[in-house]
Design a protein that fits this description.
single chain, 466 residues, alpha/beta, Rossmann fold, 6-stranded parallel sheet, 6-stranded mixed sheet, 18 helices, elongated
């Protein structure tokens, strides 16, 4: 369908929001909107609910038609049977966009749910209103303070946009991004997607100049034939991460009852993602790893990696992980080996690649890293840090971390693995190290395999663009 870009812009960047049907005692949706920078109105008929709404300092009306100004975005959270009447009022009022939280439509399989969804779909198509849903969480715009979960961070602008058929995964991706220091632009949870679905939102964010990276959680598409060219066009402009839900027969049954999506074989999806040059991820961990790599690292396509920071056995393990993933762990150049041989003692250490600096060579730490980083045989640099080193001596650990950070001047992508055998008890030290690296736009990973697989996905994306 042809997108009405100005109307979508207004719906996703509202100045006025109406929340229809919220109830106490928590008033979830009105509470979510307390961070909104614009004007919030309530629409509620139940006299018992109105005092609680007004106690929040929010003006309530009996109908959206009574609100004395234009409404850019409305949240509908009313029972299914009355939702068409409320939606019709929004259409008549000229509301720019609606996030319909109400569920129980076609995804329920009930005759009434199917018919009500058809009625709402027809109204939306005839009017051109921007409809997110039904059966969705709607919009998260951190810059304007529009939230669908109360814990979502606000007051910042970013350049990563998320498109999700699942409200839970939309919230999970948003929480993960915020935790990783990734700044979000917008998150759109659209549920059943009766008018605007995956391809339409992909089209919109591919054209959006404020979006640099797109993340998608997809359960199914209505028009598979048109989705591939849209995905190709989008990936030519910016990275697109695709997480496809329903990869097994049982999972496909679950998607049908969740958002009413039709099943497609995973082989077909894999072919579509590869042909388009998008980045396939199979779970939230993979999305997290690929996203922070894309977000923090500069574009690069060289797959020769320099490794450092592990003991002898750990050096073997990290080499295996990166090699199995498809990356090269090359021998350093003769010049580098000669230079390292002059300053390093090999008692409990080694300097081929990976480099095991060893305790005996700590006095030459910066010099060793400089030689390693400048070696012409490596394109990117990974260093391991451990919480144990931080607990033993925070000053020494911070000095080593800063030495690694200082390698940014070399101009090669830097990333780290934070190795812990007891991450729950090591959480405080791990967070300190991770925050030091994030402040310098250096992503960190929890183990070698996750780092290797993430970095290779990024390399392959940029290689496909060449």
């Amino acid at each position: 369908m042809e997108l009405n870009i100005p109307r979508i812009d207004r719906a996703l960047n509202p100045e006025t929001v109406a929340v229809i049907g919220d109830k106490g005692p928590g008033y979830t949706w009105l509470t979510n909107m307390q961070t909104f920078s614009g004007k919030v109105y309530s629409v509620q008929l139940d006299e018992k609910e109105i005092p609680g709404i007004e106690a929040m300092g929010i003006t309530n009306y009996k109908s959206v038609m009574d609100i004395p100004e234009h409404v850019d975005y409305a949240v509908i959270a009313v029972p299914r049977r009355v939702s068409p009447f409320v939606f019709r009022d929004c259409v008549t009022k000229g509301v720019s966009g609606v996030g319909m939280f109400t569920s129980g439509f076609a995804e329920s399989g009930s005759e009434e749910g199917v018919e009500l969804q058809k009625e709402i779909t027809q109204m939306a198509e005839d009017s051109g209103i921007v409809l997110l849903g039904p059966n969705c969480m709607g919009l998260y715009n951190p810059n304007l303070g529009v939230r669908f979960m109360v814990e979502q961070a606000t007051g910042y602008s970013g350049d990563v946009s998320v498109i999700s058929q699942s409200g839970g995964h939309a919230g999970g991706i948003a929480a993960m991004a915020n935790s990783n220091g990734v700044k979000l632009n917008k998150v759109v949870s659209f549920g059943n997607g009766v008018v605007l679905e995956n391809g339409d939102w992909l089209d919109y964010f591919a054209q959006d100049p404020t979006t640099r990276i797109i993340v998608m959680y997809i359960e199914g598409v209505r028009n598979g034939r048109s989705f591939l060219p849209k995905l190709k066009e989008a990936t030519a402009k910016k990275p697109v991460i695709v997480w496809k839900g329903g990869q097994t027969p049982a999972g496909q049954r679950a998607t049908s009852s969740h958002t009413g999506s039709l099943a497609e074989s995973m082989n077909s999806w894999d072919a579509v993602i590869k042909q388009a040059g998008a980045i396939r991820c199979d779970d939230l961990e993979e999305v997290s790893d690929a996203l922070k790599g894309l977000y923090f690292l500069p574009p690069f396509s060289g797959n020769r990696v320099g490794l450092a920071g592990g003991t002898g056995g750990q050096s073997v393990s990290m080499t295996d992980s990166f090699s199995k993933a498809g990356m090269e762990v090359p021998v350093l150049s003769n010049d580098s080996l000669d230079s390292l041989g002059e300053i390093m003692q090999v008692i409990g250490a080694s300097y081929n690649n990976p480099i095991d600096i060893g305790a005996v060579n700590r006095d030459h730490f910066d010099e060793i890293l400089e030689i390693w980083a400048n070696d012409p045989h490596v394109d990117s640099l990974m260093m391991q840090f451990t919480p144990g080193m931080y607990r033993r001596s925070p000053e020494a650990a911070e000095s080593q971390i800063n030495s690694f950070i200082n390698l940014k001047k070399v101009g090669k992508p830097l990333f780290a693995v934070l190795h812990s055998t007891d991450p729950y008890n090591d959480a405080e030290s791990l967070n300190i190290i991770d925050n030091m690296l994030k402040e310098e736009n250096i992503p960190s990973y929890q183990n070698y395999d996750r780092a290797a697989n993430s970095i290779l996905k990024i390399i392959n994306y940029y290689r496909n663009k060449q």
